[in-house]
Design brief:
Order of helices and strands: HEEHEEHEHHEE
Helix content: 25-40%
Number of domains: 1
Bound molecules: S-adenosylmethionine
Largest sheet: 7 strands, mixed
Strand content: 25-35%
CATH superfamily: Vaccinia Virus protein VP39
CATH class: Alpha Beta
Distance between the termini: 32 Å
Number of strands: 7
Strand order of the largest sheet: 3-2-1-4-5-7-6
Radius of gyration: 16 Å
CATH architecture: 3-Layer(aba) Sandwich
Length: 200
């Protein structure tokens, strides 16, 4: 998958890059990037942020490492979101967390979302870009049918999740959000923590 990811995404990235830039230029302070993939976001961060990027897949991590080496403010680790809390020398809380095309793939998105909540500072921002289950009934039904075939081909990616609802149910509140279509439905948001939500 790592070898095919960038060529597979090339035409989509011509549009996605604008959404990535819009979100990443809003990152501040100490940033956690979840599921960095091949490192496509690394060149887009402001130079004055400190990015702790995590990527559990070794082939993806190796590709991302080549990009990370060009940016002294990016620190890349070969771990998943579930391991961040136990990682020595990692910040305890983050000013910004970026989650782009990740909650479609993590095995347990509700758990991942709760970990985001736990790791984000109370005044921090979660920056989200995810493809979501189609709102149109016909296309949504097609995605339900295709998902069992798509998932193993696409390294665990699900077409049938509503990451926007998962994050809101965890206790995140959008301060800006947009739903848009690129053939399939997409969700972009800047989210904050609603206080006094029970987490892990
Ligand atoms: C579709 S790729 C997206 C990569 C990149 N964020 C992007 O925008 O192109 C999904 C990534 O999530 C990573 N991932 C899967 N499970 C994860 C987990 N538990 N914690 C962190 N990342 C995970 C995968 O290894 C993969 O690199």
């Amino acid at each position: 998958m790592a070898a095919f990811y960038d060529p597979f995404m090339r035409s989509l990235e011509k549009v996605l890059i604008h959404h990535r830039k819009e979100l990443l230029e809003q990152t501040k302070g100490v940033v956690l990037e979840v599921g960095a993939g091949t490192g496509v976001n690394f060149p887009l961060y402001p130079k004055n942020v400190e990015v702790y990027a995590i990527e559990p897949s070794i082939p993806m991590y190796k590709r991302a490492l080549k990009i990370a080496e060009k940016y002294p403010n990016i620190h890349l680790f070969n771990i998943g979101i579930e391991e961040v809390k136990n990682k020595a020398s990692f910040p305890v809380k983050f000013d910004s967390i970026t989650s782009m095309l990740v909650l479609c793939t993590v095995p347990d998105p509700q758990k991942a979302s709760k970990i985001y909540y736990d790791l984000l500072k109370n005044d921090g921002h979660l920056l989200v870009l995810e493809h979501i289950h189609a709102s149109g009934r016909l296309y949504g039904k097609i995605q339900n049918l295709v998902n069992p075939i798509w998932k193993p081909i696409a390294d665990g990616c699900n077409l049938t999740r509503r990451q926007d609802l998962i994050l809101k149910n965890t206790g995140f509140k959008p301060i800006s959000e947009s739903f848009f279509s690129l053939g399939t439905d997409w969700y972009q948001a800047v989210m904050i923590k609603q206080p006094a939500h029970d987490t892990l």
